[in-house]
Amino acid sequence: MALALSDVEKIAHLARLHISTEDAEEVARRISSILELIDQMQGVDTTSVAPLAHPFDAVQRLRPDEVTESDQRDYLQKIAPATQDGLYLVPKVIE
Amino acid sequence: MSDRTVAALSRSLALGKVSSVELTRDYLDRIARHNSVYNAYITVTEELALAQAAEADARRARGEHGPLTGVPIAHKDIFCTRDVLTTCASKMLGNFVSPYDATVVERLNAAGTVTLGKTNMDEFAMGSSNETSFFGAVRNPWDTERVPGGSSGGSAAAVAADLCAIATGTDTGGSIRQPAAFCGVTGFKPSYGRISRWGMIAFASSLDQAGPICKSAEDAALMMNVIAGPDPKDSTSVDAPVPDYTATLNDSLKGLRIGVPRQHLAEGLGKEVEQALQDALKVFESLGATVKEIDLPNNHLSVSAYYVVAPAEASANLSRFDGVRYGYRCENPVNLEDMYMRSRGEGFGAEVKRRILVGTYALSAGYYDAYYLKAQRIRRLIKQDFDKAFAEVDVILGPTTPHTAFKIGEKNDDPVTMYLEDIYTIGVNLAGLPGISIPAGLSSTSGKPLPIGIQLVGSDFGEARLLNVAHQFQQHTDWHLQRPEV
Lengths: 95, 486
Hints:
The structure holds 2 protein chains of 2 kinds. Chain A is mainly alpha-helical. Chain A has 3 helices and 2 strands. In chain A, strands 1-2 form a two-stranded antiparallel ribbon. Among the domains of chain B are: 6-255, Amidase signature (AS) domain (Amidase signature (AS) enzymes, Alpha-Beta Complex), CATH 3.90.1300; 300-377, no CATH class. In chain B, strand 10 and strand 11 (450-457) form a beta hairpin. In chain B, helix 5 (153-160) runs parallel beside helix 6 and helix 9 crosses helix 11 (350-363). The longest helix of chain B is centred in the C-terminal third of the chain and has 23 residues, at 368-390. The model of chain B has no long low-confidence stretch (mean pLDDT 96). The interface between A and B is large, with 55 and 75 residues.
């Protein structure tokens, strides 16, 4: 299936991914070729086949709800682009 | 020292013929002389390596050592290493100094390995040639005009050029086995869940698995003994008993049933690779194995299903890179959405963006059933094919790749051409099975000799048998000992 430029724009917004206008055409072309490859599987009848989400059909295991980590806020925030008073800084959200 | 396998280095260290500090200095010197050619390392951790080597020597002197104590190792730059740059070969993480160690790294550190540095890779492990790295392509030590394969290309090139004794890699669709084949080394992907994924930067969580890239199956067994086993920090790691992988290496292959997939011998397989495979079958037959053809009738659908499952999971996993808590943030964002969009648009490379977009599309409203669910149904068909085969045979043998290493730039025009490179490896990930690529020949048609790899696939958690079969092959052939001129 071939994607139109408007499709690419819509998906890019869903993914919060800026795609420049110059790149959009090439992105559309290459993704269309990937979707063509993917569409090979559409011809196979799988109505009686259950989806396999995990190679061993395993389910998530749970642990007791106990605190196991100590506070490392200062250490972990050292690598953040911008922090203040122990908080992460981002552009103003509410005007 | 001519034999640089971990097994041999470990013996020399135990006998006191060499100290870990001497060995580490020698490797650091080799890296300083040759890395500019191969670009196998993104970061070299000289200071850390020498400190760990001194500690390893002290441990050996106290008698507190295992086989890996003092052995110089390189980690794929997808593994978090505490206080060391961990980039995943992306601009997005170009300044990311990890605050913690991956479980794989933690266990190897505890065993006394010496970290020489972090190896180059395809960005976020998305690629089969190492050309998508933000830090530039890696060059194949057998022919520097060719790719080393990917995504663990830096690890494979570093082992091949002996810029480390052994390396870690990760494999989502062939990323350990394919570069191992292209570089003439041994690459082992264990069963899904055998090794903890904690601290391994996630690409496709239902497929990703860590493993060794090394010079022999015996070395792979030595590393597996350290890194395999459940981890409370990874709920998908499997709580199955972990055997001593070295204990069964010398078991006889008499009566071993080898299956060769008919579909792998069909159109698309290069003549020289096919010849190497036939020669390998003769070796196995001479060791008492029997060979029969088997069917993997849905294998041709594995690439299609993979390019839904892997990008879908990647689009979810990579949503964490938003420029807020760590990693790249764009300059002067006008608002929060602009910050997300531009940080991600500027921080990710072209291939990563393509896969995020494909995955987002496949998971978007109205398309989920047609793509993601459909791919998961195909995934079950592929798994069932393997189950059926393993009712009749003990291991499956086939090619790792259709041909030998291709030239840098050769397959960049269309992503699909590159994706089809992984036709023999991807099904193994979708089914969660263990697979190993071992050297089985050298091609002579392209001027310089180029390695040929063959792949052995085992049943669920059949790692010990697989390593045994690979080791026996290496006891009766010397392809794994061939080295490029560095």
